[in-house]
Amino acid sequence: MPQTTSRFFDEIAKLMTDATGAAQGVRGEIDGLIRSQAERVLRDLDLVQREEFEAMKAMAQKAREENARLEKRIGELEGALSRFGEGRPAASPPTGGDPSGR
Questions:
Q1: What gap in Å lies between CA 53 and CA 46, rounded to an integer?
Q2: Burial per residue of 10-45, b for 16 or more beta-carbon CB atoms within 10 angstroms, e otherwise
Q3: What pLDDT shows up at residue 47?
Q4: Is the same domain home to 41 and 54?
Q5: Statement to judge: residues 35 and 55 lie in one domain
Q6: pTM for this structure?
Q7: Domains in the chain: how many in total?
């Protein structure tokens, strides 16, 4: 009887080992399916990848800095232009007469 009991437990252990291997295989397949479905959903949502986002963020920051620099330069040029215009008499508008002076 002890030999029968031992064989019985050996068979149970073998079945459990086989079931564990099969369960791990099924788990791997399910993980793969879930991952592919999640990737498909994210692709359909048209989300931006992190690298693309960081590149666009850097470009936007650079553009803001350039705009600030240009805005400052325009202010300086407008100031210089107004100072330049203060020292000269205002130009008289054209009279609409004959350019030959007749």
A1: 13
A2: eeeeeeeeeeeeeeeeeeeeeeeeeeeeeeeeeeee
A3: 81
A4: no
A5: no
A6: 0.43
A7: 2
